[in-house]
Amino acid sequence: MSRKLLEKTYFKALNKVKAKNIVKDNVSLEDNILIINNEKIDLNKIDNLYVFSVGKAGFSMAKQCEKILGNKIKDGVAISTSRGKLKYIKHYTSSHPVVSKKSIKVGEKLLKKVKQLKKNDYFIFFLSGGASAVIEKPIDGLNLEDFTKISKALLVSGIDIKALNSVRKSISQIKGGKLANEIKANGKVLVLSDVIGDDINTIGSAPMNNGKFEHKIIGNNEIALKASKKYIESKVDKTKILTTTLDKNSIDATKYIKQKIKKYDEKYDSFCLLIGGETTTNPKGNGKGGRNQELALRLLLEKVVNKKISLLCAGSDGIDGNSDANGAFVDNDIYKKIDELKIDAKKYLENSDSNSFFKSLGYDFTIGITGTNVMDFIIVIKER
Ligand SMILES: Nc1ncnc2c1ncn2[C@@H]1O[C@H](COP(=O)(O)OP(=O)(O)O)[C@@H](O)[C@H]1O
Ligand SMILES: O=C(O)[C@@H](CO)OP(=O)(O)O
C-alpha cells in the first residue's frame, strides 16, 4: 500500500498553508503601493511601515513578508517557537504551550514597540495559533508562579480552546484586544487559523480583536484540505472532504471514521476521505504521544484498514502532543510487524504511549516543526 500517496496528499495540504505561500498569496508590492488582500495602501502617504508576527508561524510569516517588502519595513517584532534571525524585524523565540518568563519578557517588548506607532504609520500584524503562550503580560498583582499554576491547570482540564482562552484573556494585559488598544496607527491583522470555525475571538486569545482593526483569515484547515482534494481527485473514483471541524474525543472520532470508511468501502473501488479538525485526548501514564498518533492507534485497534485501505493522522505544526513526531500511518502490513515484534498495542494506548508504539514499528510520521499551524489532517485512501 502506498505510503507515498498518503504523504503526497498530506503535503499538498500543508504546502498550501505554509507561511511562505499564504503570505505570498496575500501581500505584494507594486511601485510603492502595498497590496494586502486586494486593498491598496500607498506607502508614499504613510510615515512608517511596521510588521508584527506572533504565534507558531510567527517567524516564517515575518520572514516571507521581509522577502516581499524588504526595506519598506521600518521595524517590527516577531515572536514564535522557531529559531532564526530577520533583517528588519526583531525575532524572539519563546515557549509553548505554557507561558514562561520568556513569554512575559517578549510580551513586554511587543507592547513597548506597538506603543511607539504614530497615527500616520501603518502596520501588518500576522497572527497564528500558539500566540496565547508565546506572548504574555499578566494583569497587575498576578505573579508568574500563580499565573503558571492557572495556565497549567487549564491546559490539563480538558476544557475547549474557546473556554480556555476566555480565561487567558481575563488574566492578561495583552489578550482580548488589549494589545490593539495600545495602537494609534492604522493596520490589518492577517490570521492563520488553528481553531474550529476560525473564531477570531479565540485564535491566540485575540490580542488584536476589539473591533478596531480588520482581521482577515488567510489560511485555515479548509483551504489546506481543498488543495489535497484537487491533487487526489483524478487518482481515485471518489474524493470527499468529510469535515474540517472535527472536534470529537479520540474514542468518538474513531467510531465516526470507522463508520465512514465502511460506507465508502462498500460503495467505491477507490476513494480518498479527507478530515480536518482537532480531536481531544485524556493522557494517562507517562507515555509519549499526541492526539493524532492516539487516533491512529485507536483506528489500528479497530482494524479499519485492509489490503487496499491505508491512512495517515497528522498535525500541521509538525509536533503532536509531547512527542517529536507529527502523526502516524496505518496500513495492512503493520499487523504483521506487530506479530513479529510481539507488541501489545493496547498496552501502549493505556499508557498514552502512541509515539513509542509507532516509532518501534517505523510507522511514525516525523517531519519537524513546519512553521505553519492549521489543526490536523486525517487522510484515508483506498487504492484500486
Ligand atoms: N501522550 C499523549 N497521548 C495523547 N495525547 C497527548 C499526549 N500528550 C499530550 N497530548 C495531547 O496533546 C494536546 C496538545 O498537543 P499540542 O500538539 O501541543 O497542541 P496544539 O497543537 O493544540 O498546540 C493536548 O490536548 C493533550 O491532550
Ligand atoms: O494560541 C492559542 O490560543 C491557540 C489557539 O489559537 O493555539 P495553540 O493551541 O496552538 O496554543
Give a written overview of the molecule.
This protein is of the alpha/beta class. The protein has 2 domains: 3-13 and 222-382, glycerate kinase, domain 1 (3-Layer(aba) Sandwich), CATH 3.40.1480; 19-219, Rossmann fold (3-Layer(aba) Sandwich). Helices cover 38% and strands 22% of the residues. It contains 14 helices and 15 strands. The strands form 3 sheets. A 6-stranded parallel sheet has the order 6-5-4-7-8-9, with helices on both faces. Strands 10-11-15-12-13-14 form a 6-stranded mixed sheet, sandwiched between helices. A 3-stranded antiparallel sheet has the order 1-2-3. Strand 10 (238-246), helix 10 and strand 11 form a beta-alpha-beta unit. Helix 2 crosses helix 3. It is globular, with a radius of gyration of 22 Å. The model has no long low-confidence stretch (mean pLDDT 96). It binds adenosine-5'-diphosphate and 2-phosphoglyceric acid. Adenosine-5'-diphosphate binds at residues 97, 281, 283, 287-291, 294, 315, 317, 319-322, 352, 354.
List the helices and strands and how they pair.
Blueprint: H1 3-16, H2 19-26, E1 27-30, E2 33-36, E3 39-42, E4 49-54, H3 58-69, E5 73-80, E6 90-93, H4 101-115, E7 122-128, H5 131-134, H6 144-157, H7 161-170, H8 178-181, E8 186-192, E9 214-219, H9 221-232, E10 238-246, H10 250-267, E11 271-277, H11 291-301, E12 309-315, E13 327-330, H12 334-341, H13 345-350, H14 354-361, E14 364-365, E15 376-382
Parallel strand pairs: 4-5, 4-7, 5-6, 7-8, 8-9, 10-11
Antiparallel strand pairs: 1-2, 2-3, 11-15, 12-13, 12-15, 13-14
Helix pairs in contact: 1-9, 2-3, 10-11, 11-14
2-phosphoglyceric acid is lined by residues 97, 129-133, 161, 165, 194-195, 203-205, 373.
